[in-house]
Amino acid sequence: MSGLSSIPVRVAADGDACHGNALAILHEVRHALERLISTGEATRIDLHALPFGAGDEAWLTALLGTGEVLATIEALGPTSVQETAIPGVWLVDYRNAEGQRLALHLEVTCIPGILRTQCRELDTAVATLDTRLSAATPGDSHPLS
Fold first, then answer.
1. In sequence order, which residues have a C-beta less than 8 Å from that of residue 51 and are 6 or more positions away?
2. Could you tell me which residues are beta bridge partners of residue 83?
3. Nearest CA-CA partner of 78 in 102, 105, 96
4. CB 66 within 8 Å of CB 32
5. DSSP state of 18
6. CB atoms within 10 A of CB 32
7. CA 66 to CA 35: how far, in whole Å?
8. Taking the model in full, what pTM does it have?
9. Residue 104: in which H helix or E strand, if any?
10. 32, 100, 17: which is closest to 64 by C-alpha?
11. What is the set of domains in the chain, with CATH numbers?
12. Using one digit for the tens of pLDDT, what is the confidence trace for 16-62?
């Protein structure tokens, strides 16, 4: 019999795990806010890439609170962009079509990157609007139907 059999084994669920990283993340957010104010530099913190359990996430999101803006983007699955109660701090939750989390970011910025118009899309903006205008008849309730 090996010595390993005498070591007690305990199985713990990770559902409410706290790895103690939420407080460090909040200090990082504070420094990121100072950088944003002084230089305009945005910061993205990838919470999904850290040892960050459900307990850490719950504690962090409770402390940050909820702001007034919530946007949902449908691109390869739902992505929610939630403003926190701290101006300039956004929680961005990326999910796939099955609803599984792909990434969870805190963005310290004036506007989260996923909400910005892609500059390459602006190249077609005028042509798209011109096409729609030429097809529209004043008074139509649904000009493109």
1. 19, 21
2. 90
3. 96
4. no
5. -
6. 21
7. 22
8. 0.76
9. strand 101-108
10. 32
11. 22-121 (3.30.1370.140)
12. 667 678 899 999 999 999 999 999 999 999 998 888 778 889 999 99
